[in-house]
Fold these 3 entries.
Entry 1:
Amino acid sequence: MDLSKSIPISKELNPNKRMHWTLILRASDTWCYTAKINHFKKGHAMNTNVTTSTLAKMKKDNVKITAMTAYDSPFAKMFDESGIDMILVGDSLGMVIQGGSSTLHVTMDEMLYHTKIVSRACKRAMVIGDMPFLSYQVSVEEAVKNAGRFLKEAGATAVKLEGGASVCDRIKAIATSGIPVQAHIGLTPQSVHQMGGFKVQRDEERLMNDAKAVQEAGAFSVVLEGIPSSIAKAITQALIIPTIGIGAGVDCDGQILVMHDMLGINSGHIPKFVKKYAHLGDEARKGIKTFISEVQSGAFPGSEHCY
């Protein structure tokens, strides 16, 4: 039973209080709203911008962080309005948007373009621009310059880069320049050839050292990808900064998925760690086939579609 529909809520209450009571009274959806209610109680109202301080407090208060990739305005707006905390404009667009076999060919200009249109659509979520291959590896100076472009030209709040101890000089320089940096360790797709493929990373000592190193260098958060759950849990407990998991188990401080996987848009291989929450690809194909059929039969356009 949806109690929020049966119990009137005074219009005299301010919007925040009304939202607060609505969330509490939705008894049938308690499991969905528990984290957001706690989030609200602890001063992180749904209508306030998510910042690095917000995320740090969420970790401290044991409130799970939600994150999603997005690459265009309509989906970014949808995620933002739904309450996603963090939107990553990932270089994964090289695979899910451009149809490539890896992310290595993605350019800075392409990343800036997609980050700009996502940033325009978001009012609350933190937008993070993913630094593509060779945009930060060449030199510290290039890394700072390219990171700054994400904020100046594309409207991002932060940047993400792959690597652990080996890129800490980049992380430190970028963070010192006033640009929030999210690190990314474990399975790092830009190193796919060096790793011999997209493989789960199991070297606990190296992963722990990398996690502590990026925190010390100034990263505000770290993505843990393709790591056994037990190792991800140990890293999460050892760090002050939030961990965002993708294929790293339930004990991370937050979770992120690629939108095309999560929404069932992709029809190819889906990683084990993905859960499909919708089947948009199937629905789209069904609609397209119906359109073709109705055009061929003359059923569309009907009189109601004509001027």
Entry 2:
Amino acid sequence: MLYKMVKSKNCLNLILLLTTLVIISGCHSGYEEKDGQVYHKWIHGGNWTKEYSLMEKADAETFRTIKHDLNIDLGKDKNYVFKDASILENADPNSFEQVAEYYWKDKNYVFLLQFGETNCIIKNAEPKSFKIISEYLWSRDNEHVFYKFDLLDNVKAKDFQAINEDWGKTKLHYYYHNLRIDSLDYETAEIVNTYFMDESPKQSNYIKDKDNVFFQNLLVKDANPKTFVADGVGTFGHDDKYMFDWEKNEGIITEQYRKTYIDKK
């Protein structure tokens, strides 16, 4: 179960260190033109050697690097835009420009370059009016709202408010990413806070109203909204009787769970 997890700062620090090493292992080093051909340079994380990938369709005469401060390499020539060594599908090199962070656009499309794919188009996004909402993965144009690549159905941009990187709302509904919580009583809705180690409280993956508790958009059966509390990183919790992992009831609160998550509060 997810609540059988990190229990000390030392473990958390180890996880952060390992994550950093994974990120470093995919280091980007830019592009190099040699003998009329363009190569993408990158550092092999296993043995820390510099590797070269030939970009067969790149035109060396017109190729140039696109400057930015992201953890990817971008370049373009007269025909294509390149993301690392691959062609960025459907991108127009003459109008390709940055919106903010990993969001880019050209005259036809909006692209989100953060997640590794070469087909990075945000479908239905209108480039001229497109912008990100705060610093989160929410974005909008004049008519639509998006979470990452996903369109929020039937949501007008003027009515939407991003709460944090996971939660947003309109005048009628709450959303977890692009998922609408239909059965939630809007007037009494409250995103449940969680307290992890010595961190400040943050909003969890749970939301409740006067009658029910939901994990993201899923009903947490048997959970008492009056006593429900999110635990750990916010993906499990308890009420006055039961333990819950995501939306699942894991049974009566055990003594070990009580000692680990309840008595410490």
Entry 3:
Amino acid sequence: MVSGATQGESGMYILSNNKQEEEQPQSPPMTEDARKNATVEAIQQLGQTVTPTGESNIFCMTIIGQIEGHIVLPPQNKTTKYEHLIPQLVAAEQNPKIEGVLIILNTVGGDVEAGLAIAEMIATLSKPTVTLVLGGGHSIGVPIAVASNYSLIAETATMTIHPIRLNGLVIGVPQTFEYLDKMQERVIKFVTRHSNISDEKFKELMFKTGELTRDIGTSVVGPDAVKFGLIDALGGVGEGIRELNRLIEERRKANTGGMVQ
């Protein structure tokens, strides 16, 4: 009997190619359109993309639009979902190739507890962090902006500081206002602990009247934010990356006992 042959119903032997049968068809390489679709999906789901694909030791995270917390906002709102940012920060902390994190903000604020959760995670990272406010870092974006090791703000950017407020049903009892006051104190303590602004000055800006037409508070422009001690310095992307590289170099020296190879 011929090797690799099978006997048909008519008794004739039919040759078969065992090698071809054993080989599995290979999946075609990813096309350019497929790569573009994957990038677009990453932008839609996480608001981020890995392109350009050059290797970098810096992880860049963007916080834009409204910070979405426990309630899903309407689809027409541009939002940053805090449940997307938390695993990204954990991954950056665990990845040995990532040596620093650059956080870029252009946010109108949003959920207080979600914003504070993001700010606390940034503040407790062991790797160097730099925050950069572009456009605006309003409301609960203020604690996030000051949570890093070094903070920068563009000259034309603004930060709105105002008291917190409640949405939905509000029960008109003293306990409601006590709860608001306690939550506000959490924000004030975090900001004053992670920046050079005093408690008195921050409260003065927060409760100022006559400046905002429909709210209590202050809109602080970039140079004033630096003057008040809220932000460390004026700058942009270039200054942010340079400062982050400096902090990374200092961390390397500290970990190697002052010797860098």
